[in-house]
Amino acid sequence: MQANNQKKKNYTAEELIKESEGELKEAFALADEISEENQAKVIDAFTKNNVALRHFNPSSGYGLGDEGRHVLSQVYADSMGAEAGIVSPALLSGTHTLAVALFGILRPGDRALSVTGLPYDTLQSVIFGENNGSLKELGVKFDLLPLTNSGAVDFSALDTALKNAESDLKMIYIQRSRGYELRNALTVEEIGEICSFVRARGFKGCIFVDNCYGEFVQKQEPCDVGADISAGSLIKNPGGGLAPTGGYIVGKKKYMEKVANRLTAPSLGDEIGSYAYGYRLFFQGVFLAPHVVNQAVKGSLLIGKCMEKLGYENFPKFGRTISDITRAIRFDTAEQLCDFIRSVQEASPVDSFAVCEPCDMPGYEAKVIMAAGCFVEGASIELSADAPVREPYTAYFQGGLTYEHCKYALKKILKKLI
User: Fold this and answer.
1) How far is the C-alpha of 374 from the C-alpha of 395, rounded, in Å?
2) Which candidate in 46, 291, 308, 316 could, as Cys together with 51 as Cys, close a disulfide (CB 3.0–4.6 Å)?
3) What residues does 329 pair with on adjacent strands?
4) Does the pLDDT value for residue 52 go beyond 70?
5) In this model, does residue 6 exceed pLDDT 50?
6) DSSP class of 241
């Protein structure tokens, strides 16, 4: 693999890492400060809800009166600045979680407006699919507001869209992370600015945030700054590397009731739902999440700084607030891209011997290559990397349960690059 620009200095991997760590001391200190505040916030949520050993117990059948399920959901809501929550192993992925929330809130004839352009690949069939029970087939309209050339929300176009909006506009949709786009993720402050902007122009509907990859990266969450709904996957940030599956949705009670009716049935809502394996890993996972996210953020900063020094363009740029755990790194060719992904797999604790190859995956148009030598299958909070094999050739590197693992993997990657 070759850098996008000629290297300015010859390094060994160890020298490059040491120099980069020295330059990142201030950024690492900020990450520690954020982690400390988020840890306090989560513990306060545990204390407020009187979490006890009995809440870890399994349940069966209908799960009527399952205290663990209810308390876990409220711990998430309180940790994320929301009124109510749903945390469930029946939410099978981030895409499924977002779909349940969207179908729960939107009704036939409603219109939603995505202010961050086209949603993530796997959601596109959920929204626009043909003959698959999509929102489109149910009569829900979903408009797209393209981002500016710099990857920012186009407030001028948003102002025009809101002025021309009719009564059927019921949702403003925001995707925090970049997905497979080459742009910066939105900060919580930017999400708050969008919320304030649309409210100031009279919008009274639901502000919905896809919060995947962003949980506990900053001191506040979307619901703290005006979002009505925030949702994501437990095998990303908030599960802390321990949650074996599941998703969460938090927000205002009036919307959460609608979501609960979609998750189960209108006559049942959030009153049922059992889990025969118990909830300890879910509670323990969110308890650990602020620290685990801190480790992933530091790992992202380190690989970003090292790759920048070697001339590789990567996002987020230094000097910008880190707002999710994902780092996008550009390469010149498909071969370089695939070699990088394979290097990450080789540094994994599980299936390190596996050779990653691009393949077709459900919900994606381009072939995808994915390194995920994880303890929990597909867990993006664990050290992983993936990419659609298409131009611009960009790898999306995320996670790392420990900074030490991130650093170990980086040494292996750099020794191939240098």
Assistant:
1) 18
2) 46
3) 314, 395
4) yes
5) no
6) T
